[in-house]
Amino acid sequence: MKLSVLVPVYNERRTIDEILRRIHEAPPPGIEKEIIAVNDCSKDGTRERLEELKATYPELRVIHHEVNQGKGAALATAWAHATGDVYLIQDADLEYDPAEYGKLLRPILDGKADVVFGSRFLVGEYARVHLFRHYLANRFLTFLSNCFTNLNATDMETCYKVFRREVALKIQIKSKRFAVEPELVAKVAKQRCRVYEVPISYSGRDYSEGKKITWKDGFSALWAIVKFTFSD
Fold first, then answer.
1. How far apart are CA 52 and CA 173, in angstroms?
2. What is this structure's pTM?
3. Which of 41, 49, 68, 70 is most buried, by the most CB atoms less than 10 A from its CB?
């Protein structure tokens, strides 16, 4: 099996070395891996560092956006270049740990799941006590998404979403920014996929540490939940 790890990157010079090292070393062993990093017009030296790291990680492919477009657009670019049997989304900010790839892939490897979400709200090993209003917003958006999709997910906004290639190829990403999360969930629900959740650890960061999502993205997510339930 070949795993495509899709990494949207924007101004992550402080973390890019460490996240690529963790992805490179991530379990499970014996699985071929490609890393597709899409630099979304970073201005902090991320672009140059990614080019240097290609010599360290032969499985790394780097694609550059010349204009900043957002996480969804970066994912769409990575999506179009992926060649693996399974696609896994990985943020570059160290909030999510690639050491958990084994548990994320297991339902697919066992033949039970078409799609796996990593949930920050199921009981995992640890989670940072962090940003209560973000927690409330995530729970509300997940509840609303479930109402429209008829899924019982606990964490619609999670970064860790894993797809069998057959499912991924039926998805054309339209959202430019963070509305990509409800869009992906809505399009998975339309396919009537076998969706599993697994608990994951979470090391959230705050705005002083580089967090980018804002309250405006919450309103975009509300619209995306409705929009992508009823149309593409």
1. 29
2. 0.90
3. 70
At which residue do the structure tokens 């608990």 appear?
199
Give me the CATH number covering residue 69: 3.90.550.10
Cis peptide before 28 (omega within 30 of 0): yes
Asked if the model's pLDDT at residue 106 lies above 90, the reply is: yes
Place of tokens 């989670």: 127
Q: Which of 119, 133, 96 is nearest to 207 (CA)?
A: 133
Radius of gyration of the chain (CA): 16
For 65, the domain range is 2-230
Tokens representing 87 are 């696609």
Q: Could you tell me the CA-to-CA distances from 50 to 8, 26, 46, 88, 215 in Å, in that order?
A: 12, 19, 6, 19, 30
Burial (Cβ within 10 Å: 0-12, 13-18, ≥19) of residue 92: buried
Task: Please count the structural domains in the chain.
Answer: 1
Q: Please state the separation of Cα 93 from the chain's center in Å.
A: 11
Q: What are the CA-CA distances from residue 125 to residues 139, 164, 176, 196, 200 (Å)?
A: 20, 26, 32, 19, 7
3-state DSSP: the chain helix, strand, coil percent, rounded to 5? 40, 20, 40
